[in-house]
Specification:
With about 425 residues, the protein is mainly alpha-helical. About 60% of the residues lie in helices and about 0% in strands. Helix 5 runs antiparallel to helix 6. The radius of gyration is 26 Å and the shape is elongated.
Amino acid sequence: MKGSLLAALALGATLALMLLISLTRPAVKPPPQSPEPASPPPAPPPAVPSVRSTPPPRILPDFLPPSPPRAVSHRPTPARQTAPQPAASPSTRPAADIPDEANLIERIEDWLDNWRDQVNSPPGSPRETAAEHLARGEFEKAARAFDRLLLDDPNDPDLLMGAAIALSRLNRHEDALPLLLAVLERDPRHIAARYSHAITLTRLDHREEAIAAFTQLLEVSPDHQGARFNLAILLQSLGRRQEALTAWRNVTAPLSGQQASRPATNPSFALAPALIPEAWFHHGEVAMDMYQLQEAERCFIEVTRLTPADARAWCNLGIIRATLARWDEAIAALEEALRHEPSLAPALNQLAYVHAVKYRDTGHPTDAQKVLDLCARSLAIRSDQPNIRSLRNALLDAGREAEPAEEEPLSAPK
């Protein structure tokens, strides 16, 4: 009786140590939920990580291969949800197709302010009218207005830039691209044109060209955080993990201790405040993928500092701490995740396995009952989880075989 119980709990402990959970904010469509593996293989050495050619999925698979740890992904950020972009919604698009839209909007405003200062067009003039349409988000009217102005002055870089911005916001990226190239031909150091050019290549899914464009922009403007952010997203989406990890380190290095509600010291090239916790989150994802667990833990601690209600960040902290066999800290983080998102199945599953390890080590029936309760909650959310079902059934069978004098039989939650 106890032999079968210990064998079942040993399996649960192995799964607890190896459980990895992921979503990614980010292939052209997010992959469907992947089933959990029947039995996880032993973890390979950290020096030989598995290569992933697609970006992290934006959905919640319940189980993933055990090494290296993979994170529960971020939800789309508010900046991406509210940006006035007529393309598909962020929830259905990969991260590489969702560049730093908040910063793109800021570049429009900055460019308009600079242009108005330089040109000093009188109110009601054709140039000022085109600028007002652009500032108000009336992109169809702005595109027509700039087209009319370009008939008289086809080589004016400001008019080319204004027309390109309007076309980009109308999702007419192929039409915007030659205009941006024309601006860069006349002024290779035009920062706004370089940034919009790289964004346009990204939206056209020319990812390698976009990486080159962002890299060239950073050579001209090394402090451009929007370019750093998008470069890291693109590298991550292509599975170039070591490069992505370096890129995310470059993004987050200036952000340490920075508040999400407070912009950086250089507002012209700073990240939008809402993207600061997301940068830390992506950094943590890639660090987990590369088995840099201490680095990943620091990243998710920063996310929870900036956004304390982020359930997925707390869940990832629990995954990391469970992998490092810091059981009590793992339990605390996972319970915090479930406090903010009670139906987060990966947190329920990870917490069940941690309590299974504790039951293996202590034999305390309270831990066994917690495993059953957590399994029931997870299976109510998603029934096709064979490992969770097997763990629950093994504990129930062990409880039925237990002698009444030794311990009280376990009961399945109703």
